[in-house]
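Extended Data, panel c. Modelled sequence:
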Amino acid sequence: MRLFIAIEFDENILQGLTDLQAEWKILGVRGNFTPVQNLHLTLAFIGEYGNANFVSEAMNSVSFDPFSISLDGIGTFRDIFWAGIQENNALSNYVRRLRRALAENAIPYDKKRFSPHITLVRRAEFNRSIEELLKNPPKGDMEVKSVSLMSSTRGKNGMIYTKVGGVEAN
């Protein structure tokens, strides 16, 4: 089972992200746009792992109080266009404690530095200046009250993400 831990977005954040995607399409961005149902913020990518219950137990060992996140800026990683999340100590601290719990439970995860972003377009192509895309950054914020354990499977039209567990804030 291919697993990851993520924050699923409320309608406010989703609206900001889909508005940005629509604007980019009008400006001529081409590529594989992330469907609205797949927009999320990955906190820890686990990958192939056989026991979601072990991951859920590790997640349950890390308590957190609700905290707010806000969309902030956009950028690119090679041919991936993304939206960012405003720097946030509560989010960073939670991710650090979550990843420590995974490590303490011998659950493998991608140890790349946490860089909070939401992938909006893969294999993006844009023939004009990227500065045009930066003019109207996405807007939206939400209170994080839960974190989800997700599985991903490849469907005929792309990835399908399914919630298989999660934790609630204190």
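The beta strands are 2-8, 30-33, 40-48, 67-77, 80-85, 117-125, 141-144, 146-155, 158-168. This feature is highlighted in the accompanying rendering.
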